[in-house]
Amino acid sequence: MNALLTDLYQLTMAAGYWQAGKCGEVAAFELFVRRLPANRNFLVAAGLEQAVDYLLNLRFEPEEIGFLRSLPQFANVEAGFFDYLREFRFTGDLFAAAEGTPLFAGEPILLVRAPLIEAQIPETYLLAQVGFQTLVATKAARIVEASGGRAVVEFGTRRAHTPQAGVFAGRAAFIGGCAGTSNVLTGMKFGIPVFGTSAHAWVQSFPSETEAFRRLQALLGPATTYLIDTYNTLDGARRAVALGRPFWGVRLDYGNLMELSRAVRSILDEGGFHDAKIMATGDLNEYKILELVAGGAPIDVFGVGTELATSSDAPSHGAVYKLVQLETGGEKRYTAKYSEDKSTLPGAKQIFRFPDRDLLACSWECHMGAEALLRPVIIGGQLVAPLPGATEAREHARAAIGRLPRKLKSLFEVEPPWPVGRSVALEQLSAEVRRNEMEVAR
Amino acid sequence: MNALLTDLYQLTMAAGYWQAGKCGEVAAFELFVRRLPANRNFLVAAGLEQAVDYLLNLRFEPEEIGFLRSLPQFANVEAGFFDYLREFRFTGDLFAAAEGTPLFAGEPILLVRAPLIEAQIPETYLLAQVGFQTLVATKAARIVEASGGRAVVEFGTRRAHTPQAGVFAGRAAFIGGCAGTSNVLTGMKFGIPVFGTSAHAWVQSFPSETEAFRRLQALLGPATTYLIDTYNTLDGARRAVALGRPFWGVRLDYGNLMELSRAVRSILDEGGFHDAKIMATGDLNEYKILELVAGGAPIDVFGVGTELATSSDAPSHGAVYKLVQLETGGEKRYTAKYSEDKSTLPGAKQIFRFPDRDLLACSWECHMGAEALLRPVIIGGQLVAPLPGATEAREHARAAIGRLPRKLKSLFEVEPPWPVGRSVALEQLSAEVRRNEMEVAR
Prior knowledge:
By secondary structure, chain A is an alpha/beta fold.
């Protein structure tokens, strides 16, 4: 399942490791983000459930192995490697921060410790899945923060990078704090609330707007949300009022939302519908929502699509997956890279979260008064315990983000950032590895 | 299959259309991009093959219908609707521009003509699939143009918005002109060439860089591409030369690519390896490649990942899917929207491409000397003829982009843009519909 959904070099390297007799070496790789994207003061980890599904179900089907054998890059590879692939299972360990945990630059979201080949092949899939969901959960947290307590619903599947990305965007947005999604499959797979209104095509398909509204009300009763801007927004609001109860509210999809929401609120109130809600949609993002909220626009729910499902101001965050140690027959070798702009720290790590700072340390260290964020999820190829679902992850995010200093929730970069220190042992290890690597390079 | 991978409102509206007795009405929807993204002078259509797969296989499984029935939004829906879903098939027509066709703002990429419900439900999926692939094919065409004849390979799955998006990014990038992709599944599913080198982890896993290179050469022979920047790039190049033939070339992944490629070229040439190639990777985009090419950097192949697979300077283009006509018992009604910033044109259309301009016309019109770009793909729920594969789509893109005026291939917006006119009949229809819609609104 999905074994070929990876970069070719993962599989040629696997063949090379096999031929070099490195099957028995145990590697540790860390998945982390080097720098926070612009204007972010933290990330919200997401995508672990799918990472786990992938690792536990990673298999090479005969047809996939046949395809590899047909490639010129595998022409010199010994047949034994393909036998190895046939029996391939992920037998290693996965440590991870719980979904919904706020994390910072350089902090591992995942740590994979497994025989070298088993740890190398998943790189591409894990980066894309965890990287994307983390991106969207982070964006959602910003939008929810800007909305100041009003509900935010994810509406972005149509603009997501494939429909499949839309499914996971809905999940990640929910973990980041959204109230739900419009994606029905997301709702079914992950138990997430689904929401929807109606489209301009609905209104256009009937001879009059009133007829379209009447039909919608007959269908949805108290959940009815009229899209009122197909012709004239204020006329649309008046037609909604004229039809009377039951209805939930109205949706505004374009135009000056500040002015229109006020005018529509007046029409609803004058009609006696003080409890009718106003939902706003239409190319919204955290800054536009901030302005609407700050200006007192009487909007109850924001529907956010494109900018949320594509994290459009930061459509990638350069997550990486780096080798940090390699164990061969009892001997442990630590590795790192020391180029100017892309250096990494050696050794499997742990993140210790204190009330006012994080400490990045070697995985074997203990630090009192801090929470160790990386927890065992898979050990020896077996799931340690059932994972929390999306609802629990969302609750965890809400509580954990709530414990961060208020200033970090700004929509802009704040100084100083959350402190992420390094333990003495980690600094010493890094200095030592640096000396050794210089030797290797010579 | 994927029937719930849509927005909830598509399905509640479907229920509403069914209850309103509108099953027999035949709608036409057009999928198009309102405005070209910044710096683009054309789009490259892609994603049709997946759109067709989706429409031909759209089914509601009993489990999916059960989930819908459990939702509060379907509480008032008559049981007959769920019987209808059980038998649901797409029985309509799809007209589309061939994959690889350059298109402009407002021009339909797809035209769906089907019973209203069958045309409405696919909106979300079609937008996300065709929208995304078109975005990436367009980005690829820019990068290929900037590379001035050097090969470009798509390496972006790890940064794509989910691994699944990576599969389709590789396909779309190939249609847009890339030589291939690193995604093995893309290669297997679509017959696209796959390429790869090796990673820093490969080099780090061996006791020395020379040992790592020697092992790679033993594995890949003449296809060997050494990643030479793990320690020191120039030392890496010297080690490659010292190992001798066979090898294909070297890869540079960071640093000043202009200077490093020159220095590495000298080392290769002095070693007698005039035919050894240099590949460059590392956060490249069309502008950086333009600078390298303009500066004469001796780079033979560019590997582009993040910015291509996420179209990061324009991660969405606001594709829309708009109702343009509705036929009820022989009577045809044309619809459009006339708001300031989001107006649409009524009626099913055809794009006529003349050598020096496009003409948007009503679908029934004929215009001599022009090519009609929207061709029947599905008629009455049946595929008209097998679709061209990705390789033919790539060739079509190459030829069709080649026929556009040279200035349109600029990486910046040019004035005047490619002219897209409207036929007299379309203008008349639009004026007439506008008058009628004002009546409805009253």
